């Protein structure tokens, strides 16, 4: 589920070369950065974007359609939906970041270790990664959530664990590729110490595709978190979170369309933007 | 080759054992347990002593290591134990759910391939940049929509509003249309991206210019090369999207009220039915290992270039 | 080679797509028109959508609504409780005698009743059933049933007469024989171990329907028993059920159930959410909001908790909760605001609405008195400890999460922080018996007898309060031993007052079971606690 777009990893030959060859004008990329910037601003200074209370609503104003007073309408408890989306961005974005950080740090370390040391250790690490891939990610994540307790951060960690395998495989294959290049051979040949070469040459040159994967994972992590909200393991009530808003709003799809559609659009925009940025990163890398 | 095969099978067995062990250890750590959840149900009105008694009867008060060995031996003999939730043999529950999920997942994957090939091919072939752009933007959109949301919207639109396909009743085939689509769309996205890129690479290769110069139509070139370029990534993705298919089937089966391994997984987790959870771990690990084994063994057959560096599986 | 393979794949794919489109276009069906009521007709298949899959089908566990929906059709009971008058009427027992102190019950059984496997429903079988329900069976891992109190033993007088003996007076037993959990099963079924009795295929009853087919977790098909001829004598309808077949299909998504109903794909659905009632009605369908006649949906505060041990704090929370706002915001007329611990329709109900009004000023002053002072963030503190409580979202209660969120919002106005926690059932089960981890619970219980209040509060029953209050236990025991109905009702009233005065309960609303049905579905009926009975149901639609 989490490795949804981790296709880069799957290519047996040259995993680094993905990137959708979508020739959007640079304006597309600008818009993508703009969308992310707005989301980050929502998370950091929500007060600038909404004056409504995201937690305590006015029950008498429940389920109002979008209007000038409530741009996104209100929910079943009379809470302003825009306020909940804006205030929820901090939790959703940090959820995405945590998920990516867990996958990135653990996965990259494993991959780096396996790819650079090689031999038995490589074999061992890759079997661990196989096990991670073999156990259904959802079952793994659900178990992790039960162990850690519900809540966005814990869900994000669980989602991150699910993407460790993807990062590890990608990093390892990148490291293997970079190690075979002439300049690394030369660095070793000229007496460079193992870790120095690793840090100076191997790591920086392997990271491009990994960073691209991270950007894609960021988007799919937000979606994965919303799936867990759907299954009833979401953010702690009454805190807003995008996935939770979509998941809970779905019940009102037939009667109050805005409750699931508008937060859904926000997520689509952010995920598409993250994907776009990811592609631009992998293209620069090329 | 024989040595390679033996090595791969050995690895597969190792991964299976490790998955079983990891699953067992993880499930030991869960708070509460299925016996508590089930029998503390106030409607049954059992005292803590009675619950302890039941636990003893289920043998769940033995030391963990004893239970581990016991369970492992059971699995080796094909005995997966009993579901604590329903009291039925775990094997029966898996057997009830597996055909439905296998059908859903297989069709879902095939339709995903179909969607991906269509997108990649039409976009590469199209002479209009805007069609190309629009088609290539689809995968990003496909992965931006939560599966459960897609399922619900498909039901609302096609079943309830347009009344084209029933979700309740109807033939088995009718009941599969929307769930298969729901499952296929997100999986088709990465596949479409890979295929589109492969086609671009083919077009950029010098021999294409040569063949074109010789008078071959561009369509012919694409037809000629799409197959080889589609097959390998499709195979690779088949090996890895397995987990996604399971995750997707959990959501799809819940939304569409279908039975299957996905629903079983979710319910087993909800009531911490550990024997069922462990069996699901082993089952999916087995399928994963088998699929990847087959994929690895097929690579050299399909692409002679890989035959030389067999064993380097990323 | 790859080229041909690809081409055929593509061609097959295109063909498949075209087929999908065609089939989809063909299967569009016309919406049904509402038929007129009139003479019941035999035949037809009812499609009934259930919210959750049934769990263990051991009869005493049948209280779970998905189980009840199935078992109510498969089994008969000794007696029938009229859901309107709540009077106990004959069914499998054609008559009975009870001794003066309610320690001996003698039932005279109807002749000629058989189980669906052909075995007779006789005194011996009834005795075997109640021996298990009253005493449990350790060897077979069968737990005691909650509706039987003080059971001692059974005595088979003759083939159609059975007598039950009790250690102490058990006035609730007669009603207990009518509840869903007291369904009678064959001797073979009742002597199976727990795991076996849990499975639908092993449940052999004498009811109007039998199981034809089951797809676990998805669908149960019931068919009418043609030779059924032992409906309660008070029924106008005798003989076999009208329907030929019932398809019970598990459909967890709320909006899918409702959409399937209003788009004509299903005939009858359980658990219509409050916000969907208007949609169902607007489409010309019927809503049945059936009362559950028991302990109201509410918050139950545990006196063993270190914050809630102070009765003033409990009373303050009671006064600071606006049940009316909860109902008006989240629910509909189907959910009457609670006026006591018990539902208005429960036996022994007493109106306590005067004590239960929303009064934040009183709440604030009670908390001031109790020494809880508002901190900088508006949350009260005492001795460095915040007035902060947590509650688990309760899966079975409708809109539990939203309800708790709204209550939390109301409590912030009196300086109390309520953490609404969502957790898996394992975590909840582990925390349930600890008043510090679970200071209050959101729950209800339905049963149409005075004993329902004992079920909820007694330390040896559900013990929702984790009560450390010996007086409450004593009152509940006195109630369940009173033989005279008026005296019993008076005691139940006393208990309600006591529970409210002690601030143990914050009743919110009288929880109904809400069903939706198509206009062509007639004869919809329910047992006393709102589980559907399909015996009387008939369809006026021709093609069904």
Characterise the protein shown here.
- The complex is a heterotrimer of chains A (286), B (314) and C (544).
- Chain A is 67% helix and 0% strand.
- With 286 residues, chain A is an all-alpha fold.
- Chain B has 314 residues and is mainly alpha-helical.
- Chain B has a single domain (90-310), classed as MetI-like (MetI-like fold, Orthogonal Bundle).
- In chain B, 49% of the residues are buried.
- Chain C is α+β, with helices and mostly antiparallel strands.
- Helix content of chain C is 29%, strand content 21%.
- In chain C, helix 9 packs antiparallel against helix 11.
- At the B-C interface, helix 2, helix 3, helix 5, helix 7 and helix 8 of B face helix 1, helix 6, strand 10, helix 7 and helix 13 of C.
Largest sheet strand order of chain C:
8-9-10-1-11-21-12
In the CATH hierarchy, the architecture of chain A is Orthogonal Bundle
What is the CATH fold-level name of chain A?
MetI-like fold
Superfamily (CATH H level) name of the largest domain in chain C: Dipeptide-binding Protein, Domain 3
Radius of gyration of chain C: 26 Å
Count of runs of 4 or more consecutive helical residues of chain A: 9
Say how many strands of chain A there are. Answer: 0
Please tell me what the overall shape of chain C is.
globular
Q: List the helices and strands of chain A in order.
A: HHHHHHHHH
The stretches of 5 or more residues of chain C where confidence is low (pLDDT under 50) are 1-36
What is the number of domains of chain C?
Answer: 3
Task: Find the count of extended strands of chain C (DSSP E, 2+ residues).
Answer: 25
CATH architecture term of the largest domain in chain C: Roll
CATH class of the largest domain in chain C: Alpha Beta
Q: Strand fraction band of chain C?
A: 15-25%
Query: What is the residue-averaged pLDDT of chain A?
Result: 82
Cα-based radius of gyration of chain A, to the nearest Å: 21 Å
* Overall SS class of chain C: alpha+beta
Q: Unreliable runs of chain A, pLDDT <50, ≥5 residues?
A: 1-22
- Main sheet properties of chain C: 7 strands, mixed
Subcellular location (chain B): Cell membrane
Pfam families (chain B): BPD_transp_1
InterPro entries (chain B): MetI-like, MetI-like_sf
Domain ABC transmembrane type-1 (chain B): 98-299
